Amino acid sequence: MIFTPDGTLLRDSCMHQIELARIAIEDGAREINLSKIERVDSTALAYWLSLQRWSRTQNIELRWSGLPDQMLSIAELVGVDDLIHA
Prior knowledge:
This protein is α/β, with parallel strands linked by helices.
């Protein structure tokens, strides 16, 4: 199952987006497709990291797709792009 959030991944929306993703993962989603996310800031990295850590504590391996170019640029800027592409 694929979870495809929409809206933004900004400081004011991140916690809500994380909760929606956790619910979807608990319901069986194993891929998160961010292609419908309209805007991101560095908080998008916190979203990714939070869900990666949480899913691993649940013994769930997530796949990611549709990562916004801006998110990838921020990841490269702060030096975590290798983690996101892994």
